[in-house]
Amino acid sequence: MALATVSAVVLVSAVWRLYFCPQIPDWVIWEDSVFADAAGRYEIELRHKTVRVSCGIENESAKTDTRVIWTSPEEVRVQKVLSCDVDNDSTDELVLLCWKKGRYGEHRPFWVEEDEDTWSQHLFVYEYNDGRISPKWMSSHLGKDAADIASNGKEAPDIRLWFRAPDDEMSCWKWDSWGFTKEDTTITFVAFGDILAHEPIYRYGLQCEGSFDYMFENVQDKIDESDAAIINQETPLTDDPLMVSDYPRFGTPAAVGQAIVDAGFDVVTCATNHALDRGAEGVDFTKRFFDNNQVACLGIQTADETEYQPYTVIRINGVSFALFNYTYGTNGIRVPQENPNMVHLFPAAEADIAQAKSEADFVIVFAHWGTEYAEEADAFQREWTKVFLESGVDVVVGTHPHVLQPYEMLTADNGHRMLVYYSIGNFISAQPEKRCVKGGMAEFTVSLTPKGYQVTEYDLQPLAIEWSPGGRYTAVFDRQE
User: Fold this and answer.
1) Which of 216, 292, 269, 277 has its CA nearest to residue 244?
2) If you write DSSP's letter for every residue of 230-247 in order, what string do you get?
3) Cα–Cα distance, 400 to 383 (Å, whole number)
4) To the nearest whole percent, how much of the chain has pLDDT over 70?
5) Largest CA distance in the chain
6) Is 383 left (phi over 0), alpha (psi -120 to 50) or beta?
7) Which of 410, 382, 381 is nearest to 395 (CA)?
8) Residue 187 — φ and ψ, nearest 5°?
9) How far apart are CA 65 and CA 436, in angstroms?
């Protein structure tokens, strides 16, 4: 009778553990790997859920023996191991994605009387210390399971850990002084088309309003809500009243640039066919104006910036974006011979992009191209779209035609996806053609995916230029579309 009672207790205990004390889940993939740290001193081997670290140690005969100097704790099952500089100190750390019973280690919160008797996933970080391995950061339960972890492959201070959940949801983790903090991996962009400050526009702004802030009043919320806001400043700025002018050689009051700054734009694109309308002096003034106001100015360089700077890298939430801006030409005005890089032109694009992709997580090209007033992309746009797609560009935003053209998501033969807006039209202009009154706000979201950073959402919000007596031109969302 006693034996039967004991057997029943054992059976009940086994059933309890099976259903109420879950084991390591079936989706876990146990990796085997052998590799070295960045310095090449330590060999890391993961076999049968156990990590061994070997190191060359000089013996009594002054010869170097390779010995195992550290083995992962016996009670730990290692799912994956990395050797990477997680804390951005230019030295590798040993990182273990592992499982153990209980959520806590030797020390647990005072309010926890007894640790759980279940398997949970953890992240352990160790330091290499002159032939020894010592604990650096031993996490409690991660809170959300990771099917895989990887370094983002960047150098300090941009090193991050990427976690992929069993459902493929991605998260990004940055080392802080006390451990890891989760970073937002969703970045939103909005981009607006051409600002063409014709004579009635700049006359009204200077004489009636005293500024041009009103131009952005209907889109201010979108600018504020985005992580990055971009606009195309079609024409060069000037602070000389005698240089302010209309078509065909524009000179735009610096107050228009100030309105761009005050609205909170992060990026302005200036490589256009009108970039040299006021000569090298106009380019110099425009570039310095935006640089001095901490707005990234793309596509033009001052006379002092003689070294070619094909792209600008901005960083948002730990993600690096390489931003390009090219124009098809400058209305027959020659780029100064002494500074051939003053305005960025298309022929250099392919080599530039290859360089940027080695440095940045994501590549965006702002292309000033196409046929004016044409509502479909022309052969030049199609040809360069193919070049951009094959070069690995992620997003292309087009301007110059002054009218809306289609947008689409393209896929290369290798599976790479690229979003292209062939033309987003005008933002502000006094052009009389009805079709020039319609423009658009490109908006897209970039998120971390198992394939890296990709566009996960995109749209185009129709805009219309609204005119009121006296010359007040503003952009409004076109709800009739």
Assistant:
1) 277
2) EEEE-S-EES-GGG-B-T
3) 17
4) 90
5) 110
6) alpha
7) 410
8) -125, 130
9) 76
**Before 200, cis peptide (omega within 30)?**
no
Which pLDDT does position 108 carry in this prediction? Answer: 57
pLDDT, one tens digit per residue, over 195-250 is 999 999 999 999 989 899 999 999 999 999 999 999 999 999 999 999 999 999 99
Q: Quote the CA–CA distance of 458 and 455 in Å, as a whole number.
A: 7
Residue 301 is encoded by which pair of tokens? 């360089």
Report which of residues 276 and 176 the model is more confident about. 276
For tokens 């084991």, name the residue: 23
- Distances in whole angstroms, Cα of residue 443 to Cα of each of 395, 407, 461: 11, 11, 8
pLDDT in tens, 406-454: 999 999 999 999 999 999 999 999 998 889 999 999 999 999 999 999 9
Phi first, then psi: give them for residue 323, nearest 5 degrees.
-110, 125
Rg of the Cα trace of the chain? 29
- Cα 373 from Cα 11, distance rounded (Å): 80
Would you say the pTM of this structure is higher than 0.85? yes
Secondary structure (DSSP) of 459-472: EEEEEEEEEETTTE
Burial class (CB in 10 A: 0-12, 13-18, 19+), 317: middle
Residues 336-356, mean pLDDT to the nearest whole number:
90
Q: Any residues with CB less than 8 A from the CB of 432 and at least 6 apart, and which?
A: none
b/e burial code for range 120-133 (CB count within 10 A of at least 16 → b): bbbbbbbbbeeeeb
For tokens 């994605």, the residue is: 97
Strand partners, 161: 151, 173
Q: Render the burial of 107-118: b for 16+ CB within 10 Å, e for the rest.
A: eeeeeeeeeeee
Token output for 296? 């990234």
